[in-house]
Specification:
The chain is of the alpha+beta class. The chain has 19 helices and 11 strands. The longest helix has 20 residues. This is Transposase-associated domain-containing protein.
Length: 532
């Protein structure tokens, strides 16, 4: 079709005939006259209008001359083959390489961004469209991703980011495609699959306001309000007291299989063989083999995903004085070869829990949406703390046989919870009770916590001293070191000194030892600075 009219004078007959031909072409191909993307220089195919409004926009604002392939209006899209084959530009780099680096995607990952074909064409079109006429370094998409990364890196507010976009649009040449608001920018980036769900939660970690509690305004367990309380003790209706971010993994799993190279890597484990008989990959583990044997329909299809879940808390403000913490929940795909499975782009953030206090045992409440998704994937594929033994004497007996998952589940469900405070939500997954290894402990983290507890107990640091009334009562209950039992007085309870209690002079010697400690570079932080 002749598109020379796009460069003609808007008052000319050629421009008038071209506009009518374009509108007729769009109506015939899209079979609608009310929901057509407007190609004027202000709307740049982001807004939908009727034919009459679009005609006015194209006359008053002018047509976007960089819109050469009418992909949004029914013309076959030529850039799909270029994107899938990674056609090289004149400078030898893929036109999508910048975006791939910024958001950790392969070029093949541009295969699909959702079920909406218009949304897909929109994103790919943004990857082809220069940020302003004649620009070869940045496309509309790559520039937007770069700007959004700056927003996240430096903590810009939405208002600040919107003003920055407006300034950028004014600074760049006329006809540039920089969005004019945070809303439009976020709408464009959501098509990349970066969407999430904000879920309201009870401040006491009792429930998530979803499913049957979606419309509740008070927690059915503790009765506390769903809404945040202001400084004047007045509830701010509509402002949640606590929010959890959930990033659904299923759309990202689909994207992995829509990439030819990634889909091939997901079956790598089936072709490999363990040469030396040792466990060099999770595929060699008993858990992997048990799933293959117990559910052959799972093991016979190498594309079925084997996932690991990891979570830990951290202080996002990097300040020891701040009690604020974030708890990310991350999924790792073990199907991939070792050199890929631990790369950042294949580590999926599924949950982000933020609160001054850690969730503890109540983390199951926040894992509910993730477990629901994992259960749906699974259904889709298938259609006693021994106190008597601790008597203070050497133990020469053989270790007891570890409990199976089925035995653990039976004990927990029958109320025999000597070792467990609750039933883990992971037992809702049908296969969980059969796994020989259900949890992997972070040894380095445990060592750090044990070291903290030892030092806190030796130096009697408030809040970190494990030698308290409860610990002494446990010793008394087990018949160990009875002479250290608490001595109750009229005003206070006295704990007799134990062999681990240090005198003031001994504590000073310990601190002097830390103060003069020297370790190899990079071995640890400067311990000297931590000693008063």
């Amino acid at each position: 079709m002749d598109k020379s009219w796009m460069h003609s004078d808007r008052r000319s007959k050629a421009y008038e005939l071209g506009v009518e031909a374009f509108l007729n072409f769009a109506v015939e191909n899209l079979l609608t006259t009310t929901h057509i993307r407007c190609p004027c220089v202000k709307c740049v195919n982001l807004k939908l209008f009727g034919v009459g409004i679009i005609r006015d926009h194209v006359y008053f604002n002018g047509v976007d001359q960089s819109y050469k392939n009418w992909t949004f209006h029914g013309e076959p899209w030529e850039a799909t083959t270029n994107a899938s084959r990674n056609v090289e530009e004149d400078d030898g780099h893929s036109r999508y390489s910048f975006v791939s680096e910024e958001i950790d995607m392969d070029d093949n990952d541009f295969g699909d961004f959702g079920s909406d074909p218009y949304e897909f064409a929109n994103v790919i079109g943004d990857g082809d469209q220069p940020v302003y006429p004649g620009c070869r370094k940045y496309t509309k998409l790559s520039a937007l991703v770069k700007l959004y990364n700056l927003k996240a890196k430096h903590g810009m507010s939405d208002v600040c980011f919107t003003e920055l976009l407006i300034l950028q649009r004014d600074l760049l040449p006329e006809g540039n495609t920089i969005p004019t608001s945070m809303y439009v920018a976020k709408k464009t980036l959501c098509a990349l699959g970066l969407s999430y769900e904000k879920m309201h939660a009870c401040p006491n970690d009792c429930i998530l306001y979803r499913k049957e509690y979606e419309d509740s305004t008070n927690c059915p367990t503790c009765g506390i309000s769903r809404w945040k309380e202001g400084k004047d003790s007045i509830l701010k209706e509509g402002v949640p007291a606590k929010v959890v971010w959930y990033f659904p993994p299923i759309p990202r799993f689909k994207r992995m299989f829509q990439s030819h190279e990634t889909a091939k890597s997901l079956t790598w484990h089936a072709a490999r063989k363990s040469i030396d008989g040792k466990m060099s990959h999770p595929a060699d583990s008993p858990s992997w083999k048990l799933l293959d044997d117990k559910w052959p329909e799972i093991g016979n299809e190498p594309r079925n995903l084997r996932l690991a879940l990891s979570s830990d808390g951290f202080n996002p403000h990097s300040s020891l004085s701040s009690r604020y913490s974030c708890w990310p929940v991350i999924l790792v795909t073990y199907n991939l070869p070792p050199w890929l499975c631990m790369k950042r782009k294949f580590m999926m953030l599924t949950l982000l829990i933020s609160d001054p206090k850690q969730p503890g045992n109540d983390i199951d409440v926040y894992l509910e949406p993730l477990i629901d998704d994992l259960t749906s994937l699974w259904d889709g594929i298938r259609g006693v703390r021994q106190r008597a033994a601790f008597n203070g004497k050497p133990e020469y007996g053989i270790p007891p046989e570890p409990l199976t998952g089925e035995e653990v589940l039976h004990m927990v469900e029958n109320g025999d919870r000597v070792c467990w405070k609750k039933k883990s939500i992971f037992f809702d997954l049908e296969y969980w009770k059969y796994l020989p290894v259900r949890h992997a402990l972070d040894v380095m983290h445990i060592e750090k916590n044990v070291c903290d507890s030892i030092i806190g107990t030796l130096l009697e640091i408030p809040g970190k001293n494990k030698d308290g009334i409860a610990a002494r009562l446990d010793l008394l209950n087990m018949g160990v070191k009875i002479d250290l039992q608490p001595e109750y007085g009229e005003r206070c309870t006295r704990l007799p000194p134990g062999p681990w209690n240090l005198s003031r002079a001994e504590k000073r010697e310990v601190c002097n030892s830390f103060y003069g400690m020297k370790v190899p570079e990079g071995y640890s932080s400067n311990i000297k600075n931590l000693v008063s």
